[in-house]
Amino acid sequence: MPRWLPRAMVLALALVAVYQLGSWAFHRLTGLLVGILIASFLALGIEPPVSRMVARGMRRGTATLLVCLVLALAAAGFFALFGSLLAGQISGIVDDFPRYADSLIGWFNRTFHTDLSRVEIQSRLARSGWLRSYVQKSAGGVFDFSASVLGGLFRILTIFLFAFYFAADGPRLRRALCSLLPPAKQTEMLRAWEIAVDKTSGYLYSRGLMALISAVAHFVMLALLGVPYAPALAVWVGVVSQFIPVIGTYLAAALPILVAFAVDPWYAVWVLIFVVVYQQFENYLIQPRLTSKTVDIHPAVAFGSVVAGTALLGVAGTLIAIPVVATLQAFLGVYVKRYDVAEDLRGEEAQRYPRREGRSLPARLRGLLRGRGRS
Question: Distances from the Cα of 264 to the Cαs of 68, 253, 258, in angstroms?
């Protein structure tokens, strides 16, 4: 046996062991890594207000803490409004359940010519064995749900802590990263950092402003219809429709439509019509003007980036997909060199698609109709 073979075998086994250990650690720490990624983009988003406060003489840690507190209070207020709405709806359903049950039993008796009563059905259910087993399973499900809620709160707190540290130590972090690069690359690193800050903060601020406009518009409509919980529903529509790309509009509209349907089915129709009309108004008038200088990317690219981000990182990928793609597009736009189109290609394009200058669309249609009439 050659002398190098035992060393090669030991080296191969060591590499396999290191790979297995790294793969195991990566899968165990996936949640933490995704949280750090979200925290880094959140830190980029709050960088401009923190920098303005620092420029006015405030300490960076204090400014970052103040901005994080404002964000935390806004998130807590949103969940409080939504929680009150959900609790009110559940309470109303529980209070009206006997009436719903009596109506259903009456319809069943009239249709199938039976003689059932709600008291008799309740007594049979109380004596049944499957109800006890269902209650026991539901108790275990409640415990699992409580554990999931606590785990979600812990992850949110972890994201806020990392975002606070990244934003508070932003200059120190940039110096540490630049120290790992040669002087010629440090300028490029800082330029990429500034582009990421501009695109991420612009995306968050434009979405926040559109959420405010959407919430106000939907609140006015729901208040005029007399739909209950109009402020909470308006905030829900504004936040969900703007910060969950692609499908956020449909998720946001479902809840107010259901609440309006419980009041009057025609109210649900009016809410649906208003949501559709406002969505068109937002897509063609509000959004292009607010995002033209921040995240001006093609709608197809935005849709593809959201689909890819969701496939890779789930909900986190859905939230950060558009800022990432906007940053990459801006970065490539700075460094990718573009060339003028050759004269022969432009001449060929002009021959294939000739321009008819001076003639509007109605004039072209009239000319086309005249030609057909003569033939």
Answer: 41, 16, 10
